Amino acid sequence: MDESFLLAFLTSATTFFLRATGEEANLGPAELLFGGVVFGDLVGRIDISGSAAGCFYMGCSRELLDDFLTHLGEPDRSARNQRDALGEIASVIASGCRRDFGEHFLISVPVVETGAEATLGTADLIAMRVPLTWRGHAAQLLISLGGPTAPEGSRPPGGAP
Questions:
Q1: Which residues fall within 8 angstroms of residue 26, CB to CB, at 6 or more apart?
Q2: CB 3.0-4.6 Å disulfide test: which of 59, 75, 100, 133 passes with 43?
Q3: pLDDT in tens, 118-133
Q4: pTM of the entire structure?
């Protein structure tokens, strides 16, 4: 994974929280991910294709989402609305990167799962995990990207036709 991808996601995440809430989110040191991931209560996933292939994940607690919705003045802080909020947060962060990398950096609609259900969809790619803290709530960003998506009908090196 190119360093520019990691920096773009981190910049987009901190910019999102500052613009949406007026309060900064703090980032911890990035670390390579070598094993299982504990995402938190919920995880939002964005699949990436086109000029890069992989996934972006944001995992956090329901408490962070409850505080986020309260901060925005949203009276409905139900589990459904928390899931919607996390999907929107993940989507806005990934969209910020799409602006940086152009129209061929394609992002999916968000998928939100409980942390227990979530699995990494890109086991063959390098993954970086970065802790994020906003208003005392811990979250984590996970970025796993490789090269361009293979053209349809192609096969990986050594793969079956």
A1: 132, 133, 134
A2: 59
A3: 566 555 567 888 999 9
A4: 0.84
